[in-house]
Amino acid sequence: MATTKFAIAPMKAAQIPKAGADFQIVEREIPKPDAGQVLIKVQACGVCHSDVLTKEGAWPGIQYPRVPGHEVAGVIDELGAGVSGWKKGQRVGVGWHGGQDNTCRSCRRGDFRNCRNLKIPGISYDGGYQQYMVAPVEALAAIPESLSDVEAAPLLCAGITTYNALRHSGALPGDLVAVQGIGGLGHLAIQFANKFGHNVAAIGRGSENAVLAKQLGASVYIDSKSTNAAEALQKLGGAQVILATAPSSKAMSELIDGLAPNGKLMVIGATFDPIEVTPIQLISGSRTIQGWAAGTPADSEDTLHFAELSGVRPMIETYPLDKAAEAYTRMMSGNAQFRVVLTM
Ligand SMILES: [Zn+2]
Ligand SMILES: [Zn+2]
């Protein structure tokens, strides 16, 4: 009966009705873009581990029902009032950076990535697990023609995060760069690091990803289950940068001694557990630990263009929107090879 209400312009959405609840596939009215916004016809949306924040209600102040999704690829369907520089029919993506306030101290310094009131699609407003979504113009990234929607979607979070962290890590061509974890982030990081001209050491638990890591561009594979990975890195001269992608604080802590002098542990794998390090470990060799969060839509465009230029592509498994719950479970299992993407 409820569907008659939406008979004029229905669309399908996968929503979380309340914190901790299961996905619901619902029909909704296609939303209208306000001033400064666009309506996007979503073609694909990546399923990211951070969607757990929406599913389980772990983000302070999140309101329900909420449609998750911050790896959105689609086409502009309608422009809101006052929108210039974008046109109907244009292919666009929306990633983690879903809009800044332009007024906080970080924004006033031009550091939009660290906006104190950053809006995140799928958390602050409904994201891409639906056939149409509304986004503010400052969240849009243009998608190059040569990238398909399902390829572009994961590059808007997993891709930009690894690409941007690496290009701001200080590592130079020829430097030994280690990528910890061969998963959704790591399989992209290995490719980017290789294309940046680094000597790439991939670190995984067990031998099952050894062949794949080398195919992706690693020159060395270190199995942290059977060897001391920090010692193995030191035998290679020490890593200038270790990009920690797998969400294991223990595994990250164990790698710090693998850093070269002035080396940096760059942390992008999100956990709530503490990384353990002694002051001596940091003082000797002037080592640093730094975190990195995604980037702006302009950074997303850089990521997409670099992927287009270099051939870096995500490995994906696709699911239809109707199977959002299954797709999410698959992502959470950690067994996906490697990014799960919904198609509309
Ligand atoms: Zn994400
Ligand atoms: Zn701001």
Mean pLDDT score = 96
Helix content: 10-25%
Structural class from helices and strands?
alpha/beta
Sheet-strand content, in percent, reads 25-35%
Sheet bearing the most strands, described? 7 strands, mixed
Can you count the beta strands? Answer: 15
Spatial extent as radius of gyration = 20 Å
Roughly how many Å apart are the termini?
24 Å
Taken from the alpha-carbon principal axes, the silhouette is globular
Bound ions, cofactors and other small molecules, one mention each: zinc ion
Low-pLDDT stretches: 1-6
SSE order in H/E notation?
EEEHEEHEEHEHEHEHEHEHEHEHE
Tally of DSSP helical segments: 10
In short:
With 344 residues, the chain is an alpha/beta fold.
Explain the overall architecture.
- This protein has helices at 52-55, 105-108, 149-167, 186-195, 210-216, 229-235, 249-253, 279-283, 297-310, 324-333; strands at 10-15, 24-29, 37-47, 72-79, 91-94, 132-136, 140-142, 176-180, 199-204, 220-223, 239-244, 259-267, 288-291, 316-320, 339-343.
- The chain contains ten helices and 15 strands.
- With 344 residues, it is α/β, with parallel strands linked by helices.
- It starts with 9 loop residues before the first strand and ends with a strand.
Tell me the layout of helices and strands.
Layout: E1 10-15, E2 24-29, E3 37-47, H1 52-55, E4 72-79, E5 91-94, H2 105-108, E6 132-136, E7 140-142, H3 149-167, E8 176-180, H4 186-195, E9 199-204, H5 210-216, E10 220-223, H6 229-235, E11 239-244, H7 249-253, E12 259-267, H8 279-283, E13 288-291, H9 297-310, E14 316-320, H10 324-333, E15 339-343
The protein binds zinc ion (2 copies).
One zinc ion is lined by residues 48, 50, 70, 96, 157.
